[in-house]
Amino acid sequence: METYMAITHIYADKLDPIIKALNTVLEMELAGVVRYTHYALMIFGYNRIPIVSWLRGQATESLDHANKAGELITHLGGHPSLSIGPLLETHNHDVGDILRESLDHETASLNCYRSLLALVEGQSVMLEEYARELIYTEELHLGEVDKMLRKPGDIATFHK
């Protein structure tokens, strides 16, 4: 009980906004699970197997991230959301279209983690480290998707 009291005392007026930000993260990551699972089902063609494997890996990682966010929410005495973040369905299932949609989703997720970091800086090392770790991970994802969208031999970053 002392740990919980210390946590709520540290946050005081910021506890509710932090839980809300964590719930937004949870919802975005759950949307990632649905999105990447759907994308994996919609891949056809010669390169299907490695692309499906990568997409399913992204879905699994999104679920892991959602679980971490939910654990932190309950750690802080909050209630994890049952909602799922936005699910864009363009009905365009070309690999390039899927990757561009992924780029948009990863950017939105990155922005959620950056918002969380802004709220927790100076409030909690645990939450700062969590936000920084996930910002690092999302930036790596953005880089990977960017590389996948480049034409073979292109070194410059992808531009929409």
Write the layout of secondary structure elements.
Layout: H1 2-11, H2 15-41, H3 48-75, H4 95-120, H5 125-149
Helix pairs in contact: 2-3, 2-4, 4-5
Output the keywords:
160 residues, mainly alpha, Ferritin, 72% helix, 0% strand, elongated, disordered N terminus
Care to describe what's here?
This protein has 160 residues and is mainly alpha-helical. The chain has one domain: Ferritin, core subunit, four-helix bundle (Ferritin, Up-down Bundle). It contains 5 helices and no strands. The protein has helices at 2-11, 15-41, 48-75, 95-120, 125-149. Helix 2 (15-41) packs antiparallel against helix 3 and helix 4 (95-120) packs antiparallel against helix 5 (125-149).
Briefly note the CATH topology name: Ferritin
Mean pLDDT: 90
> In total, how many domains does the architecture comprise?
1
Please report the number of helical segments: 5
Q: Which consecutive residue ranges, at least 5 long each, have pLDDT under 50?
A: 1-5
Gap between N and C termini, in Å? Answer: 51 Å
The counted number of beta strands is: 0
Report strand %: under 5%
CATH class: Mainly Alpha
Summarize the main sheet. Answer: none
Order of helices and strands: HHHHH
Cα gyration radius (Å): 17 Å
Q: Structural class from helices and strands?
A: mainly alpha
Sum up the overall morphology in one term.
elongated
CATH homologous superfamily heading: Ferritin, core subunit, four-helix bundle
- CATH architecture descriptor name: Up-down Bundle
Please bin the fraction of helical residues: over 70%
